[in-house]
């Protein structure tokens, strides 16, 4: 474990006068598993956009260890050890499952390095182990474009595993999954946290409970409540804006 | 499919069939200059016209390959590849002009005719070195490569993609055309370069020179094809495909999209330059018309018709569309532009995978 903490303070993002994030603060300790919940439009995805360099904050501090993420581009942030799974699963349709994972596998990223890349036995067995984990071994040679929504979710989770990041941001991983798959995902995330920090956004409270971790509630771009799942579920304000609906 | 067979699947029968067809096609092409030597009443005689026109098409096929690498794999739709082709052609043309030496109409020992005519006292600095074949060949690659590097760097870094990038490349080739039309650029103005005498000690306009240039082009085509085939089969090729389909997603995996696109674009421009350099001594002339925006668009049509992202398709497209053009421009010259436009529309609407798609049947 590489002991770097994710630190957000006073972060605001303004789109044409609309505050998607408003003075948000968040600290995720090294190795911590954290769930983030909140109503639609609360700014959960925008928070991930800010951490991964997709969106520049209008103001505020965003850092990972001593790296200032507001000054880096997406690729540099990814190479720093921050990986992301998107809310809408995005995989490379023209490539096979195996090739998608191979592309994500942690390795030098320059053009020359990619040309000279040769699949070693070790890399191959890592990819195979991941395919086993995400249940896509049978589909290794299938183009990602023909996978079902749930399988695409799994493939993107697999790609995240291949990147071996120190911080994983996972946006709504269980949408489109069966109950059994949802349980599997929760167990997987619990298992891989500890060696790395994991931030999970999810609406499914059953799933969040299974993660058994600290929960952050966002609403209207700000921190509404934070604590154990029982704590936030009994928080008056959370019930009012989110759970009570 | 068993996991242990990963990832190199055995070549399918289609692949093997394709390979046989390709080798056959290269052999047929290679036989043409030989058959040209047969007496003209022989059944297998190939006319001078057919040899020279095929030599040109081979150069076009290299241009199409280079465009397919950029467009078909990396998704960079360049509508200015004709400019890289023309720059390679001009670099070769400068070498050929220097080789004329005192044999020009004005008999000046060093200066090409057009410079004597325009009152130049000495060679402009950028003409120095072009008397050397090796230097000229280097420039054939470096000049298009450098232009692609600068343009690509500025555009890719600013994330200018899609139609905006295409428009910029059109503007680039148009601007170059206007610049090369000017006499004071030192490139012969609207007449360009012609009246070449020799290359590598070999007098041009002889059937042996024609054959030599034909074979040089064929070797270049096969070489470029193999390089592209190899490159696109590496992980780099898969990164390009990923960029083509989901550029922004690739960044979150830690790949610098700018670097990868730039590499492909520069390599592609160099290949286009090589094609132009082989083309010019075969047609015996290069002028600013080669920069005309229509040329670049035609090259895109070849690739689209043949089937982009397949390499073979690009070559097939270049040969078939140019074959059609050669036939039509003698049969019904006014129709060509309509046919070209119609072809593009038809292929886009009904044959998105081009002629190759037709041959391959349903996608896997
Ligand atoms: N690029 C953008 N331009 C303008 N508004 C945006 C942009 N991105 C997000 N927003 C707005 O910011 C708000 C927060 O969006 P965000 O996607 O972060 O919410 P979320 O918490 O992830 O919601 P959900 O649960 O629906 O995924 C929304 O109102 C959204 O419309
Ligand atoms: Mg969201």
Can you characterise this structure?
The complex is a heterodimer of chains A (245) and B (364). With 245 residues, chain A is α/β, with parallel strands linked by helices. Chain A has one domain (6-243): 3-Layer(aba) Sandwich (Rossmann fold), CATH 3.40.50. Chain A is 37% helix and 24% strand. Chain A is built from ten helices and ten strands. In chain A, strand 9 and strand 10 (222-227) form a beta hairpin. In chain A, helix 3 (97-104) packs parallel to helix 6 and helix 5 (121-133) crosses helix 6. Chain B has 364 residues and is mainly α. Chain B has a domain at 46-291. Helices cover 68% and strands 2% of the residues of chain B. Chain B has 13 helices and four strands. In chain B, strand 2 and strand 3 (202-203) form a beta hairpin. The radius of gyration of chain B is 21 Å and the shape is globular. Chains A and B meet through helix 2, helix 3, helix 4 and helix 5 of A and helix 8 and helix 9 of B. The complex binds adenosine-5'-triphosphate and magnesium ion. Adenosine-5'-triphosphate binds next to helix 1 of chain A.
Quaternary organisation: heterodimer
The SSE string of chain B, one letter per element, is HHHHHHEEEHHHEHHHH
Strand order of the largest sheet of chain B: 1-4
Strand content of chain A: 15-25%
Radius of gyration of chain A: 18 Å
Mean pLDDT of chain A: 91
- What is the tally of helical segments of chain A? 10
Q: Which spans of chain B have pLDDT < 50 for at least 5 consecutive residues?
A: 1-9
Q: How much beta of chain B, percentage-wise? A: under 5%
- CATH architecture descriptor name of chain A: 3-Layer(aba) Sandwich
Mean pLDDT of chain B: 89
Structural class of chain A: alpha/beta
Q: Radius of gyration of chain B over alpha carbons?
A: 21 Å
Order of helices and strands of chain A: EEEHEEHEHHHHEHEHEEHH
Helix content of chain A: 25-40%
Portion in helices of chain B: 55-70%
Number of strands of chain B: 4
- Please give the most extensive interface between any two protein chains, plus how many residues each contributes: A-B, 38 and 29 residues
CATH-assigned homologous superfamily of chain A: P-loop containing nucleotide triphosphate hydrolases
The largest β sheet of chain B comes out as: 2 strands, antiparallel
Task: Give the neighbour order of strands across the main sheet of chain A.
Answer: 6-7-8-3-9-10
């Amino acid at each position: 474990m590489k002991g770097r903490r994710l630190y957000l303070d006073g972060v605001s993002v303004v789109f044409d006068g609309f505050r998607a994030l408003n003075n948000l603060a968040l600290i995720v300790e090294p190795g911590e598993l954290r769930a983030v919940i909140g109503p639609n439009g609360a700014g959960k995805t925008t928070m991930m956009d800010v951490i991964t360099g997709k969106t520049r904050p209008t103001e505020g501090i965003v850092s990972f260890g001593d790296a200032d993420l507001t000054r880096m581009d997406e690729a540099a942030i990814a190479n720093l050890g921050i990986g992301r799974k998107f809310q809408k699963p995005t995989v490379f349709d023209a490539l096979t499952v195996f090739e998608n994972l191979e592309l994500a596998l942690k390795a030098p990223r320059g053009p020359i390095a990619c040309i000279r890349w040769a699949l070693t036995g070790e890399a191959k067995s890592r990819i195979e182990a991941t395919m086993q984990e995400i249940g896509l071994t049978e589909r290794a040679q299938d183009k990602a474009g023909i996978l079902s929504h749930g399988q695409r979710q799994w493939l993107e989770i697999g790609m995240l595993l291949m990147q071996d990041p120190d911080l994983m941001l996972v946006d709504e991983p269980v949408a489109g999954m069966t109950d059994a798959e949802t349980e599997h995902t929760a167990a997987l995330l619990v298992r891989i946290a500890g060696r790395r920090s994991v931030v999970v956004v999810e609406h499914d409270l059953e799933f969040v409970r299974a993660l058994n971790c600290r929960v952050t509630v966002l609403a209207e771009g700000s921190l509404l409540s934070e604590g154990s799942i029982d704590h936030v579920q009994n928080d008056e304000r959370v019930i009012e804006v989110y759970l009570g609906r | 499919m068993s996991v242990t067979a990963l990832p190199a699947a055995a070549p399918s029968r289609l692949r093997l069939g394709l390979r046989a067809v390709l080798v056959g096609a290269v052999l047929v092409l290679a036989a043409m200059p030989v058959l040209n030597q047969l007496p003209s009443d022989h059944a297998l005689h190939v006319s001078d016209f057919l040899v020279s026109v095929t030599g040109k098409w081979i150069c076009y096929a290299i241009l199409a390959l280079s465009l397919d690498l950029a467009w078909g794999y990396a998704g960079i739709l360049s509508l200015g590849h004709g400019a890289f082709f023309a720059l390679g052609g001009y670099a070769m043309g400068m070498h050929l002009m220097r080789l004329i030496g005192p044999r020009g109409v004005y008999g000046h020992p060093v200066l090409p005719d057009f410079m004597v005519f325009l009152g130049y006292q000495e060679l402009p600095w950028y003409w120095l070195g072009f008397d050397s074949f090796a230097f000229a060949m280097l420039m054939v690659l470096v000049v298009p490569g450098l232009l692609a590097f600068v343009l690509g760097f500025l555009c890719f870094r600013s994330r200018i993609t899609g139609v905006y990038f295409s428009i910029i490349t059109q503007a680039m080739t148009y601007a170059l055309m206007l610049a090369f039309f000017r006499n004071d650029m030192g490139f012969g103005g609207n007449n360009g370069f012609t009246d070449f005498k020799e290359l590598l000690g070999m007098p041009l306009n002889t059937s042996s020179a024609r054959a030599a240039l034909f074979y040089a082009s064929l070797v270049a085509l096969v070489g470029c094809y193999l390089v592209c085939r190899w490159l696109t089969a590496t992980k780099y090729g898969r990164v390009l495909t990923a960029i083509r389909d989901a550029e922004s997603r690739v960044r979150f995996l830690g790949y610098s999209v700018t670097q990868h696109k730039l590499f492909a674009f520069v390599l592609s421009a160099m290949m286009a330059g090589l094609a132009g350099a082989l083309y010019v001594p075969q047609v015996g002339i290069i002028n600013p018309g080669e920069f005309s925006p229509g040329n670049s668009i035609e090259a895109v049509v070849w690739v689209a018709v043949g089937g982009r992202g397949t390499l073979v398709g690009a070559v097939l497209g270049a040969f078939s569309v140019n074959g059609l053009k050669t036939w039509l421009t003698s049969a019904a010259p006014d129709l060509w532009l309509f046919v070209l436009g119609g072809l593009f529309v038809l292929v886009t609407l009904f044959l998105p995978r081009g002629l190759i798609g037709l041959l391959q049947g349903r996608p896997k």
